[in-house]
Design a protein that fits this description.
Blueprint: E1 15-20, E2 27-35, H1 40-57, H2 66-83, E3 93-103, E4 107-117, E5 124-133, H3 142-145, H4 149-166, E6 187-190, E7 194-199, E8 212-217, H5 218-221
Parallel strand pairs: 2-3
Antiparallel strand pairs: 1-2, 3-4, 4-5, 6-7, 7-8
């Protein structure tokens, strides 16, 4: 749903897909969205996307570019192999992929998917919905685009329960939130069909239940939205 006005002088950011192909020892793949150009808007967007990826990978926040975290992850794997040459662990993995789920004159939502395997029973994966001001590239908090958070939470609970009813696992609210009341997820963003609400693995349920994701149609959520 693109809401650009032909009469507006504002020039929205345009994006390209960047793929990093390097000869790492670990299994590392990176495909992400990058704003084209070198203007202030593009620089701000790209900086915030890269910083979000760095944060989600969990490396030192002093890193300023994606290649730094990839080299750091790879070096840790190389050091591990040197320290434990007889270890039978599979090759470490780091996969980063982004998707622009929405763009208007007000807001851009980028979904950042991270998968990491550093040995053990299974890897760890998570998704972050990064919301950016489409005019200056600044990161938006939920309060910046949602008004009346309490009312929105009540609406979200209704759609959460509806989502459970549509599943075949016969799960109930008691299977989520670890005995605590319903609450909004850390990740809320805009998508083609409505407002996306996404709970990461372990956020409200066990690893076996995976992600919990549902959407609220725009016509139901619009009274709570500050941005289109």
């Amino acid at each position: 749903m693109l809401l650009f006005s032909c009469s507006s002088e504002f020039k929205p950011a345009t994006f390209e897909t960047v793929e990093i192909n390097e000869n790492f020892d670990a299994d590392i793949t990176v495909i992400y969205e990058r704003a084209k150009g070198n203007d202030d808007l593009s620089q701000a967007i790209n900086k915030n996307i890269e910083q979000a990826m760095i944060y989600e990978v969990g490396r030192d926040s002093t890193y300023t570019d994606v290649m730094s975290i990839l080299n750091s992850f790879n070096q840790e794997y190389v050091d591990f192999k040197k320290d434990f040459p007889d270890a039978s662990e599979p090759k470490w993995e780091l996969q980063i992929e982004t998707e622009k789920t929405y763009q208007s004159e007000d807001i851009i939502t980028i979904a950042i998917s991270i998968y990491q395997f550093e040995g053990g029973a299974h890897g760890n994966d998570q998704i972050r919905l990064l919301n950016l001001n489409a005019k200056n590239g600044a990161i938006l908090r939920h309060e910046d685009f949602i008004g009346n958070i309490e009312g929105f939470e009540t609406l979200a609970k209704t759609y959460f329960l509806e989502n459970l009813e549509n599943q075949k696992e016969n799960l109930t609210m008691e299977d989520y939130f670890f005995g605590k009341p319903f609450h909004l997820p850390e990740n809320i963003g805009y998508g083609d069909e409505g407002i996306i609400l996404l709970y990461n693995v372990y956020e409200v349920a066990s690893y076996a239940q995976g992600y919990t994701e549902f959407a609220i149609p725009y016509d139901k959520a619009e009274s709570f939205l500050k941005m289109n």
